[in-house]
Fold:
Amino acid sequence: MKNLKKIAFAMMILSGMVFNLSAQTIKERIDAAKTVKVYISITDIVHTPHTNASSGPEKGTGCVNFTQTTPFPANYTDEIKQIVDMFNKGFNTTAFIAGDISTVPVFESGIQKGNQDWLKLGEPLFVTVYAGGAYNVTNMTLMVGEVRLSNSLNIISSVGVDAIVAGKIKSLSSKNLGVVYSPSKESKTCADYDYFVKNFPLADYFDKFKASFESKTTDFITKEMENYDKAMKKKK
Structure:
């Protein structure tokens, strides 16, 4: 009976700990974790030709997907990696360090095959940062016999903060960061890889990406610190 009471008491304490954990702000979780790894994944810019219409009024382009991709230049990757220092400064901590996403276990089968298995990683709190882009083609044809293809470049990056709670991954917060949408350029025929590289040079969009990335990262941190300040005031 004594053992049962001890177990019941321990379960009550554990339940309280889980409840308190779920109520914690991100700043509190950071301070509790001591070390938080930031996993950065940057993929090449790929071709998205919208060959067939998927839904709605958009028509298929009929363009064939070319296989060439464009890696992000060093100034983009260096900018994205600065998020570790920005997080440490903004959250007033030294907990954040760069993680190596290649070391994260992946699913070996099923619909998520090849994707990261964060549960198996076993870290209670982690940050993921993704960046990628696409050479887009859409069909803007309005009249029979007329061909109007719209070509553009978009770059998107995002951040997510996740925790493992009660054996499950819990998304704590996420936000789009550096976002770039280039002006479109029309063509009557499907453009090739060289056309996109020439007409949408990544160097032309770096300043816009940098400004967006830093501004939205700051906004993300500010919002989370405001949540922390409110929570601390309630505890007084």
About this structure: Confidence is low (pLDDT under 50) at residues 1-22. Strands lie at 36-48, 96-99, 125-139, 149-165, 168-181, 185-187. The chain has one domain: 34-235.
